[in-house]
Every structure is written in structure tokens, then in C-alpha cells.
């Protein structure tokens, strides 16, 4: 069993802990267990299900999940098209269904294909797309209709501080309060590898160029929040993040995450995406990110993430497996202390990674977008906004199950349970030892025919409606609290949000585990 723990600072640490059935041996002095991972295969004893026993400790809740935690990320080359959805289609409605969030526009196209134009700035010969103030006006309308703010990437690869300043000033004037910040460059740690800078290319050189950009921007539009460095992963962030924090003191540190590479050996598969090694690697990645964030006292946003790099892989990124991965990773990022997360997408490519897409060019033009499996992961996760992570303790089990617990301000307990086992595996019987202070549980299930399914995803038994709305069922499945224990049957290849109502609301920080 792998248990993810967090010290009092909130930073997760992996630990190997054996917990006996007669008692709970934690052995984590001054540590807070915020999530658990129970990995393995089906039970080998011939039983009908695999037992998982879980206890919750409410004594030291973590930091509150920010309101704008959830987000989407698109290539800057998509901005003009997406901004037009302010006037047509279902995208604004879909965004509102998630509550407030952050739309990030960046990607490789921000450095290589898209250029700013205005009356002083002609289109440069290298640009295949342009961005102008009309696009920003339409984007503001979309932001206003959806209540989502905008994180905008300004290209650095084609070095031009004066044009960058004019673009930033136009963004500030046009987007106003909807501008969450400006990133300068996309994955600058990769510039030399992509022949955008001569090697050696270092964080110090990058920061010198960013400083010049910032001075130019400050002359035309002072006070714009800076985000960065937007590097390709946590290993690069360990090298570039401290320099960014020290030299720029940005309002927000940013970085990217893809659990599977498009050109790795062995190649990406559903089994790998939902595997123990990937979970361990992701927990280590989150620790690297948050160590820099906490050292610099600057919040971190994972402003670009998804399942497989290079646009995704059909048969993985467009399947229910991506939703199972997303639910689990979102919850673990919350536990780790991340300030927000943006899922990368391409609305023109339903076969790659994307939470939303249009099946045809005609539907793309008019904004008739459909929800991909990952969208349902976002809908489930929005119920956790404003909660505070709490400690989870579990007994050993061979099931491939994740359990993450959070406490709402109303005193209700939320548990995210993800079973990543294949459909042929046995069900898990999860016994939640929540104590008598809680009442019955309501279950919002995320299901599909199989992890490999690209259709048939349902949240609470329901799909999105034609206008982009998702309506929760009037009645959810319930499970009683019997003598402090709630028993759940968890199907392999599924996820659920379990809401346990508070029968007697304890004050935040009330001592002791909820073990009955």
C-alpha cells in the first residue's frame, strides 16, 4: 500500500505504512495523511470482493481549495475561434456549469505561430495566425458570460519587447478585471531543443529577457500580474522555478504535467496511465513543484496538463480512462496544495486529449461543442471547491483504489474514490469509519461501459444536455451510517464522489479521528 502524507506545511510525502486489522499503526510523527493509494491486482483468496477499510481524521485540515482552481488550457492559435463562442454555441453554458475558473491560452503556438497586430504592428513573416484587439473584445464577452478569467501567454521566442508591451497593454485595457495574468513564453526550458535559442540556453538568460519584457510592459501597462515560468515539467521546474521566484517574484508560478510521453518506450497505454508507477511518479512531481512554491511563498498553478503529450493518443486520451486519471490527479493536486489546474485541449480534435471538442468543422465554427470524458471529471471535481483536505488512514488491500477526503465549511465530508482496476477485477468493498458524528452518505457515481470506452460516460447516471448543462439527479443513491461505518460497493473502472452529511457539526480542527 502506498500512503501519501503531508507534513504540517502541507507538502505531500510518500511513505510505506503497514496497518494491522487490530489497530492503526501510523508512525508519521508531525505528518498529515491527506490521500491514500492502494495498488495491486484482484484478491487471490476467492472472495466476492476486495476489502478496503478507511478511517478519517478531521483534526488538522489542509488549506481551502481556491474558487478558481479548475481551468482549461488552449493553444493561443485557438483564441480567435474560442472567443467567437461568446456569441454562439454552448461553451459559455458549459463553463458556467463548472463555476468560476481560468481559461489559459498558450502552448507552442504562442511562441511559433501567433503574432500580435495593431495599427503600429504589422504581421511578421513568421506568423501563420494573428491576434488583435477585436479578438480580445470577444474574449472579454466570453469571460463575462461565463465568469471565467483569462491567463494569456505572450510569445518570447521571437524576441520583441515593444510589441509584447503593446499586446499586454491591449489585454489589460480590453479584458480589465478578467485578465488573471500574463505568461511570457511557453516552456522556455525547451527553446534550445526546438531551435528557438542557441544552446546553451539557461534560466538566467531567460530571466534577463523576461526582465526586459516586464520593463517594457510596465511603461505602457503597469500592474499586470506575471505568471511563469510555464516550464515543461517538474524536473525543469526544480531548475527554473527558483530563479523565476527570486528574479521575478511573479504573482503565480506555473508549470506543466503529462504523465505519459507520446514517444516513450514502452508506449503509452490505458494500463500504464492508471498504474501504480505513474501515481508514484506524479506524487514525486507534485512534491518537486510544491517545494519550490513553498520555499518562495508563491502559489503554483499547473496551467497545462493532460494524459499523453504531443496532443494525446487516440484510444487513451479520448476514453473514460482519461476521466478516471483526471479525477484522481485533480484531487491529489488539491491535497498537495496546488492553487489550480488547467486541462489542455484542442476543440478541433476529438481523438486527442481535450475536455471539449466539435466532431466536425461545421460544428466547430458554430460552437456546437460536446463533452469528452474528461469534462465529467471536472464536473465531479467542482463539488470539492472550497473544501479542505483531511487525513485518510487505510488498511492494506490488493485493490487498485484511491481514496481522498475533504471537509466542507458546512461540516460535510467529501470522499473521492477511484477504482482503477480493469473491468475483469473484483469489486471493492470500502468501509468508511466516519464515526457517529456523520449521517448517511449520498453517492454521485462516474461510470462508463469500460475504461476504454469513448462514449457512454455518465455522472449520476446522466449525460450533458444539448445546451451544455448537466443537471444532477433529484435523488442520489444513499448508504446508511451503521454504528459509525458506511459500507460502499465500488466497481472496477469507476469513480464516485461520496458526500457524508454532518449529523453534529464539529468545529474545524476538532481533535481525533472519526473512527466511531
Q: Can you offer a commentary on this structure?
A:
- The protein is α/β, with parallel strands linked by helices and 516 residues long.
- It has two domains: 187 residues, Golgi alpha-mannosidase II (Immunoglobulin-like, Sandwich), CATH 2.60.40; 315 residues, Glycosidases (TIM Barrel, Alpha-Beta Barrel), CATH 3.20.20.80.
- Helix content is 26%, strand content 28%.
- It has twelve helices and 26 strands.
- Strands 1, 2, 3, 4, 17, 18, 19, 20, 21, 22, 23, 24, 25 and 26 form a 14-stranded mixed beta sheet that branches. An eight-stranded parallel beta barrel has the order 5-6-9-10-11-12-13-14, surrounded by five helices. A two-stranded parallel sheet has the order 7-8.
- Helix 2 packs across helix 4 and helix 10 runs parallel beside helix 12.
- The chain is globular and about 70 Å long.
- The chain starts with a strand and ends with a strand.
Amino acid at each position: 500500500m502506498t500512503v501519501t502524507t503531508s507534513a504540517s506545511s502541507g507538502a505531500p510525502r510518500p511513505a510505506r505504512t503497514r496497518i494491522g486489522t487490530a489497530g492503526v499503526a501510523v508512525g508519521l510523527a508531525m505528518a498529515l495523511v491527506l490521500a491514500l493509494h492502494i495498488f495491486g491486482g484482484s484478491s487471490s483468496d476467492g472472495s466476492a470482493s476486495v476489502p478496503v477499510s478507511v478511517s478519517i481524521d478531521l483534526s488538522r485540515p489542509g488549506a481551502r481549495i481556491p474558487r478558481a482552481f479548475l481551468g482549461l488550457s488552449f493553444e493561443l492559435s485557438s483564441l480567435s475561434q474560442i472567443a467567437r463562442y461568446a456569441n454562439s454555441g454552448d461553451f459559455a453554458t458549459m463553463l458556467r456549469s463548472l463555476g468560476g475558473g481560468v481559461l489559459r491560452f498558450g502552448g507552442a503556438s504562442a511562441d511559433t505561430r501567433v503574432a500580435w497586430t495593431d495599427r503600429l504592428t504589422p504581421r511578421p513573416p513568421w506568423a501563420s495566425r494573428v491576434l488583435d484587439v477585436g479578438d480580445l473584445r470577444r474574449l472579454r464577452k466570453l469571460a463575462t458570460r461565463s465568469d471565467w478569467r483569462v491567463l494569456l501567454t505572450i510569445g518570447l521566442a521571437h524576441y520583441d519587447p515593444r510589441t509584447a508591451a503593446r499586446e499586454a497593454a491591449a489585454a489589460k485595457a480590453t479584458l480589465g478585471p478578467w485578465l488573471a495574468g500574463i505568461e511570457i513564453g511557453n516552456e522556455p526550458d525547451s527553446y534550445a531543443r526546438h531551435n528557438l535559442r542557441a544552446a546553451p540556453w539557461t534560466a538566467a538568460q531567460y530571466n534577463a529577457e523576461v526582465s526586459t519584457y516586464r520593463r517594457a510592459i510596465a511603461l505602457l501597462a503597469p500592474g499586470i500580474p506575471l505568471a511563469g515560468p510555464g516550464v515543461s515539467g517538474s524536473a525543469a521546474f526544480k531548475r527554473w522555478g527558483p530563479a523565476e521566484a527570486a528574479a521575478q517574484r511573479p504573482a503565480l508560478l506555473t508549470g506543466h504535467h503529462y504523465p505519459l510521453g507520446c514517444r516513450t518506450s514502452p508506449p503509452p497505454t490505458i494500463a500504464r496511465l492508471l498504474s501504480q508507477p505513474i501515481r508514484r511518479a506524479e506524487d514525486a512531481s507534485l512534491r518537486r513543484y510544491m517545494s519550490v512554491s513553498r520555499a518562495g511563498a508563491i502559489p503554483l498553478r499547473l496551467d497545462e496538463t493532460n494524459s499523453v503529450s504531443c496532443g494525446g493518443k487516440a484510444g487513451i486520451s479520448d476514453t473514460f480512462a482519461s476521466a478516471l486519471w483526471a479525477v484522481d490527479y485533480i484531487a491529489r493536486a488539491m491535497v498537495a496544495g496546488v492553487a489550480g489546474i488547467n486541462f489542455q485541449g484542442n476543440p478541433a480534435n476529438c481523438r486527442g486529449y481535450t475536455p471539449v471538442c466539435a466532431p466536425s468543422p461545421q460544428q466547430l465554427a458554430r460552437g456546437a461543442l460536446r463533452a469528452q470524458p474528461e469534462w465529467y471529471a471536472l464536473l465531479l471535481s467542482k463539488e470539492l471547491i472550497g473544501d479542505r483536505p483531511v487525513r485518510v488512514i487505510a488498511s492494506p488491500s490488493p485493490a487498485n483504489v484511491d481514496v481522498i477526503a475533504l471537509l466542507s465549511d458546512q461540516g460535510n465530508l467529501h470522499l473521492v474514490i477511484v477504482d482503477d482496476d480493469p473491468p475483469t477485477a473484483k469489486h471493492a468493498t470500502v468501509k468508511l469509519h466516519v464515526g457517529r458524528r456523520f449521517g448517511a452518505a449520498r453517492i454521485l457515481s462516474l461510470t462508463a461501459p469500460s475504461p476504454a470506452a469513448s462514449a457512454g460516460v455518465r455522472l449520476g447516471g446522466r449525460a450533458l444536455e444539448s445546451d451544455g448543462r448537466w443537471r444532477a439527479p433529484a435523488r442520489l443513491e444513499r448508504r446508511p451510517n451503521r454504528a459509525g461505518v458506511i459500507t460502499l460497493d465500488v466497481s472496477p473502472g469507476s469513480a464516485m464522489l461520496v458526500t457524508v452529511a454532518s449529523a453534529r457539526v464539529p468545529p474545524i480542527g476538532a481533535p481525533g479521528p472519526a473512527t466511531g
